[in-house]
Amino acid sequence: MEFLGEVVAWFANPETWSGRNGIPIRLWEHVSLAAAALAVGTLIALPLGMLIGHTGRGALAVVSIANIGRAIPSLGWFGIVFVPALNLGLGLGFWPSVIALVPLAVPPIVTNTYTGLREVDRDLVEAARGMGMREWQILRRLEIPVALPVILAGIRTSAVQVVATATLAAVIAGGTLGQLILVGINIGDEVQVFGAALLVALLAIVTELSFAAIQRAATSPGLRDRGSAAELSV
Amino acid sequence: MQDASGAVVAFEHVTKRYPGSDAPAVDNLTLTVPAGEICVLVGPSGCGKTTSMKMVNRLIEPTGGRITIGGEDIMSLPAVELRRRIGYVIQQVGLFPHLTIGENTAVVPKLLRWKADRTRKRTDELLDIVGLDPARYRDRYPNELSGGERQRVGVARALAADPPVMLMDEPFGAVDPIRRDGLQNEFLRLQSRVRKTIIFVTHDVDEAIKMGDRIAILQRGGILAQYDTPAAILANPASEFVERFVGADRGLKRLSMGRVRDLDHIEPVIVRSGEDRAEIRKRLDRSDELTFALLVDDDNRPLGWIDQHDLRGDGPIDPGAATPGAPTVEPESTLRDALSAMLGSSVQLGVVVDERGRVAGLVSVDAIGERLRAPVRGVDGELHEVGEADATS
Q: How many residue contacts between A and B have a Cβ separation below 8 Å?
């Protein structure tokens, strides 16, 4: 109980909220880094997933390569970008951190986009083609809207992972809430370590809930399960 | 009959060979579907009926021969433009689940870049045509509809851009048998208005007989076994294969094809409650075909038969004496249903009634028998004696 009191006191302390190591700046770094990594990851993963999902070709290769992102531990990616970033004179911080997070952001989006598109009923695709839709129209007007809930679920998974893992960017000077944890460990301040970790957890939950809300709002009412209503006949 | 808005579809020596397969899926198919008629492609699985149909909108490209629509080679247009001019209805209906009924119906108009108000007007009109109130259905989603309703939307969608030709791939296959019959009737009524040229695929010979103006029976290897009107195929199967395929009950199937309206009606002796017996006896004696009078109510609806026995003596007839249960048939009833109703009744006459149940005439069992023995009109427009070209003779 005493520890919890100290955590509350830490949050209540104005110093915690001000300066270079204050929560607002670190939180902003955290969110902007995660957003950038998710954006870059989505830009890579969506077209790739759509290509293999629509054509059904090259799926094994692409999904395998994407999964390497999962096979290498997250911290490993920060190590991998560390050396070239220094050697190429890019410096450390934001962009190397983005690059380290992208391999983590890509696999869920590629996999879900691919799966979502493949799960679209082949009869629907044939009906669309038979009505005179071009291939990209089939993708844009049928496959993507029908697969949207699955695609968004992939982006959601990706976002939560990236938000949680962005903490590690502190090790290559990327700042973020991880910086507060790192400093806390260095000076032996368990309260700060715990408080910052709590913030990361909260941010991950907020991310999860926001994306779930987006997913619901973006799903056509026709794709929501209406239970037995669909079975009733008039 | 209204002018056909359809176009002639002609297969000329059309062949489809799939790579890696020796036997063709469709072998040298030549047939012409006149504008505004339904041509049913029917046969066992592997007979190439679906392949033949899908070559018309080039979902499958022929490897030989040519197909023309209204005299124009289908290869002269880009495939997507060709397809936008051909309505397409598939078994699973294939409505887009994320779009409303209105949006589903508007898919092809949208591809053709119609203006929004023209599209809206057309979709409302179409929903109305297929019997779905636009105000009630326009903004609903496919998962809120029954199978039969979805099927109607599928037809509306195929008709959206008023294509001259429609392809229908087992369109009623996903509907339960009870509702299928109703939807088939509804579609035939719709077709009598729109007069499209329709290529209709089914594996069900009864459906083929019911829906087809003409039937192409295909056998394994994509060989055309017979192409004729349903009546001519049933009366004179061209081969043993066709005879087996249409089934041993083809006599009954021919009954299913005929309608009560095709029979010669007998003028009934109509009787109302309170009429004089002697007067009725006189009228009945004048008829050489009838031994029964038909008792009707004030609205001319049949109540029952009055026989000679009920007419003995004088004074007004007793309505209670009538033998109830005169079987009623409608002009649209099949001869098979009519016969069944008549055989189940003591008086082997059927009362033809109009849509309000009023008496329009009588038909007899004999008339049905005569009808079966009458010559049958073939695809060549000539009348052929029944059994004339029978494969077994």
A: 88
* CATH fold for the domain made of A22-219: MetI-like fold (1.10.3720)
The answer to whether residue A76 scores a pLDDT higher than 90 is no
Domain boundaries, given as residue ranges, for chain A: 22-219
The H-assigned helical ranges of chain B are: 49-56, 79-84, 101-105, 107-111, 116-129, 134-137, 147-159, 177-194, 205-211, 230-235, 240-246, 250-257, 277-286, 335-343, 365-373
pLDDT at B391 over 70: no
Nearest to B151 by CA among B109, B189, B180, B111: B180
pLDDT in tens, A159-172: 999 999 999 988 88
Write down the H helix ranges in chain A: 2-12, 23-55, 59-71, 74-87, 94-118, 122-130, 135-138, 144-165, 177-187, 190-218
* Residue B388 included in any domain: no
Give me B204's structure tokens: 């069900």
Nearest CA in chain B to A135: B80
ipTM, interface predicted TM-score of the complex: 0.82
The average pLDDT across A74-98 equals 80
Whether residues B108 and B201 share a domain: the answer is yes
Q: Which residues on adjacent β-strands are paired with residue B328?
A: B351
Q: For residues B274 and B313, state if they share a domain.
A: yes
Task: Give residue for tokens 């008829």.
Answer: B287
Q: Do B80 and A132 touch (CB under 8 A)?
A: yes
CATH number of B281's domain = 3.10.580.10
Helix, strand or coil for residue B295? strand
Distance of CA A57 to the CA centre of its chain: 25
Q: Does the beta carbon of B222 lie under 8 angstroms from any beta carbon of chain A?
A: no
The pLDDT value given to residue A232: 37
pLDDT in tens, B352-385: 998 888 999 999 888 888 888 888 888 787 888 8
| Phi, psi dihedral angles at B6 (to 5 degrees) | -80, 175
Domain span including residue B201: 9-257
Pair (B172, B121) in one structural domain = yes
Residues contacting residue B23 through CB under 8 Å, at least 6 positions apart = B221
Cross-chain residue pair B100–A222, CB shorter than 8 Å: yes
- Count of domains forming chain B: 2
Q: For residue B182, what pLDDT is reported?
A: 85
Q: Which of B227, B257, B287 is the C-terminal boundary of a domain?
A: B257
Of the candidates B257, B288, B304, which is a domain's last residue? B257
Is residue B383 domain-resident? Answer: no
